[in-house]
Amino acid sequence: EVQLVESGGGLVQPGGSLRVSCEASGFTFSSYWMTWVRQAPGKGLEWVANIKQDGSEKYYVDSVKGRFTISRDNAKNSLYLQMNSLRAEDTAVYYCARDSVGGSYLPLWGQGTLVTVSS
Amino acid sequence: DIVMTQSPDSLAVSLGERATINCKSSQSVLYSSNNRNYLAWYQQKPGQPPKLLIYWASTRDSGVPDRFSGSGSGTDFTLTISSLQAEDVAVYYCQQYYSTPLTFGGGTKVEIK
Asked: N or C end of chain B: which has fewer CB within 10 A?
């Protein structure tokens, strides 16, 4: 079955760090760009970052630049988002998504993992 | 950054009637070299991740019912549900993938009247 499964969410204090993971199965992970999208409670979707197939290119939304790092391990079919210096406004469900071969629309999404930043 | 503006924020439509959602981008998302609009539409139901409905502005993803259609070019786009069904109650988002940062519209909530 083609799927993405996120893990690693939880409660973290402001200023703290957390790494969320996404394990892919059912497709050739190394052939696709991968993306993180987040959704604050009751709010809309916000693209966070994406990464090229071999990890050589990475892009971020301005609000997380210098704090978040996207990475991948193609041998483990896994995508990661290392989040440092977390703020209350980073509280959200974090979704991992697979890009299409032809463009950065997102045909495959995980169920998401909730990250709560609070003291 | 390309700003995506959706309208209306919400709409209530009777079962079997047409629902129309608009999306406007702050700059063109039409790539002249291939004449493609880098615009997608997603549906999100409560407690679920988004689901891709439309890409390249008008191409339905596999398995999406044909009552969903996308149109438009350049900066102005429309998602139409030709005959609203109960299972179409959801929030709908447009997204541009012309340039990073990729950006989403604010969402349109569709309900039954």
From this structure: C
